């Protein structure tokens, strides 16, 4: 795992989406660091420079490795932001070590388990990635779900960047995470037990992978939460509208800091 960090607390842990790497959060990491936070933005196992776990696919394994890595960074508590897969991982971290999370920011993700059609699609993608030995087939399949209509029509550089992430993802990593995400549990009960501050942030054009109903379901069970809409953005809102997402994270975190004074 790699990290971007300053020496100043409090700590914010940023967990990236599938099939990106930690650079997905570059704009937010810079803004948070400039605001005085210590930012940790790791590559999840299998992405970027991080090795894929040599065990059966399971997001609890990823969360366990994150806990070990945080120990290495001498971080006992932190605010956690996760987008999509990063959100699933944040919820796995919450199930294992809720005492370590001071605030939770769930970005374009969902707490419910996959329904049968989505689960079957994940398993089919895993099998094809292994059979093809590359991820080129995913570029056309994933872009419409990952990026909002505004981004696809007006921000070609974001489309190209996202396509590059898809192509860079190793087939073994794609297969491992598709199977891990397919078996993730429903996390609504876990969220209902989290009494610390939480923000649910979503791109208004994310209508396929994490639609508004999923966001409202998380807000409904989180005891201390806010819902934040990012206009003109789809599923990868942090990449599509980096300034808006950075401001949302900063305003939410600043409000928590102010409440502690």
Keywords:
alpha/beta; disordered N terminus; 261 residues; Rossmann fold
Topology:
Blueprint: E1 11-15, H1 26-34, E2 38-40, H2 59-72, E3 78-83, H3 85-96, E4 101-107, H4 116-132, H5 136-146, H6 149-154, H7 156-168, H8 171-182, H9 188-192, E5 198-203, H10 212-221, E6 225-230, H11 237-240, H12 242-259
Parallel strand pairs: 1-2, 1-3, 3-4, 4-5, 5-6
Helix pairs in contact: 1-12, 2-3, 4-8, 5-7
Could you walk me through the main structural features you see in this protein, from its secondary elements to its overall organization?
With 261 residues, the protein is an alpha/beta fold. It has a domain at 11-112 and 185-259: Rossmann fold (3-Layer(aba) Sandwich), CATH 3.40.50. Helix content is 50%, strand content 13%. The chain has 12 helices and 6 strands. Strands 2-1-3-4-5-6 form a 6-stranded parallel beta sheet, sandwiched between helices. Helix 3 (85-96) links the parallel strand 3 (78-83) and strand 4 (101-107). Helix 1 runs parallel beside helix 12 and helix 5 packs across helix 7. The longest helix has 18 residues, at 242-259. The protein is globular and about 55 Å long. It starts with 10 loop residues before the first strand and ends with a helix.
- Spans of at least 5 consecutive residues whose pLDDT stays below 50 are 2-7
Summarize the helix and strand pattern as letters.
EHEHEHEHHHHHHEHEHH
Classify the secondary structure makeup into a structural class. alpha/beta
Intertermini distance: 34 Å
What is the highest CATH level, the class of the domain at 11-112 and 185-259?
Alpha Beta
CATH fold node name of the domain at 11-112 and 185-259: Rossmann fold
Biggest sheet: strand arrangement:
2-1-3-4-5-6
Radius of gyration: 17 Å
Please describe the biggest sheet, giving its number of strands, its sense, and whether it closes into a barrel: 6 strands, parallel
Percent of residues in helices = 40-55%
How would you name the CATH homologous superfamily of the domain at 11-112 and 185-259? Alpha/Beta hydrolase fold, catalytic domain
CATH architecture of the domain at 11-112 and 185-259: 3-Layer(aba) Sandwich
| Total helical segments | 12
Mean pLDDT: 95
Instruction: Determine the strand fraction and express it as a percent band.
Output: 5-15%
| Secondary structure: number of strands | 6
Q: What is the 3D form? A: globular
């Amino acid at each position: 795992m790699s990290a971007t960090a300053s020496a100043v607390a409090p700590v914010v842990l940023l967990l990236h989406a599938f099939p990106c790497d930690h650079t997905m959060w570059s704009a937010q990491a810079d803004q948070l660091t400039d605001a005085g936070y210590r930012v940790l933005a790791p590559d999840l196992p299998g992405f970027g420079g991080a090795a894929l776990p040599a065990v059966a696919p399971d997001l609890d394994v990823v969360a366990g490795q994150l806990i070990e890595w945080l120990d290495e960074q001498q971080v006992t508590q932190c605010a956690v932001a996760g987008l999509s897969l990063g959100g699933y991982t944040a919820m796995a971290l919450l199930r294992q070590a809720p005492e370590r999370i001071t605030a939770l920011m769930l970005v374009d993700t969902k707490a419910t388990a996959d329904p049968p059609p989505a689960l079957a699609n994940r398993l089919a993608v895993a099998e094809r990635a292994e059979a093809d030995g590359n991820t080129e087939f995913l570029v056309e399949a994933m872009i419409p779900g990952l990026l909002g209509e505004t981004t696809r029509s007006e921000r070609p550089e974001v489309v190209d960047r996202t396509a590059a992430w898809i192509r860079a993802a190793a087939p073994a990593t794609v297969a491992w995470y598709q199977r891990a995400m397919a078996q993730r549990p429903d996390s609504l009960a876990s969220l209902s037990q989290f009494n610390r501050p939480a923000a649910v942030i979503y791109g208004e054009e994310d209508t396929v992978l994490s639609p508004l109903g999923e966001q409202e379901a998380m807000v409904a069970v989180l005891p201390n939460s806010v819902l934040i809409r990012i206009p003109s953005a789809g599923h990868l809102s942090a990449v599509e509208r980096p300034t808006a997402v950075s401001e949302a994270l900063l305003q939410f975190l600043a409000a928590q800091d102010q409440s502690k004074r």
